[in-house]
Automatic annotation (TrEMBL):
Residues 61-75 have a biased composition (Basic and acidic residues). InterPro entries: DFF-C, DNA_fragmentation_mid_dom. Residues 8-42 form a coiled coil. Residues 2-118 form the DNA fragmentation factor 45kDa middle domain. This is DFFA factor. Pfam families: DFF-C. It comes from Edolisoma coerulescens. The gene is Dffa. Residues 61-88 are annotated as: Disordered. Residues 79-88 have a biased composition (Polar residues). Keywords: Coiled coil. The keyword Ribosomal protein does not apply. The keyword NADP does not apply.
Length: 172
């Protein structure tokens, strides 16, 4: 790095070489530094990929296991015939409702299945269950939608990376 930063004319004089040779030397040194940086970044990316694979495998193994018991904390939906009925109950469990009320960013605390339930919930019923106005409940649903979309994109990216890496293993 120091040799690259030294003015070409000073380095040429010190090494008793022409400025053209010093330029070639500095360019070569810069290429070596660039390659090392690319290798470092590649290693970091590979480490993240391997970590993501481990995480995905653990998630997939959890998804593959049947739940020990169905969620008994779910309430039955009774929305009535009017969508303006603010006394409508929700299918969200007490645990999910508590997380929605208490957490500053509840969409980050909920699993994907709970995020889907929040999105399917009627905004008015959600607002009523949380004691919020419809605008705040709608904003919460939007945040949950964005988080769920982000998670699904990450899973798709992981699958794409996995299929790409499997395809490269098959090559000679």
């Amino acid at each position: 790095k120091v040799l690259i930063d030294v003015p070409r004319s000073d380095l040429a004089e010190e090494l008793a070489q022409s400025e053209t040779k010093i330029q070639v030397l500095q360019d070569t040194l810069q290429q070596v530094l660039d390659r090392r940086e690319e290798e470092r970044q590649s290693r970091q990316l590979l480490e993240l990929y391997l970590e993501a694979l481990k995480t995905e495998d653990s998630i997939l193994s959890k998804v593959g296991e049947p739940e020990a018991a169905p969620r008994k904390e779910m309430d039955v939906v009774d929305t009535g015939t009017s969508s303006r009925d603010t006394s409508a109950t929700t299918v969200l469990s007490d645990r999910v409702l508590a997380a929605l009320k208490e957490k500053p960013a509840p969409e980050l605390c909920l699993d994907s299945q709970d995020l889907e339930l929040v999105l399917k919930e009627d905004t008015a019923a959600l607002a009523s269950a949380l004691g919020w106005d419809k605008q705040k409940a709608g904003a919460l649903q939007e945040a949950c939608d964005q988080e769920l979309s982000k998670r699904l994109n990450q899973v798709q990216t992981l699958h794409s990376l996995r299929s790409t890496s499997k395809g490269k293993k098959a090559l000679p």
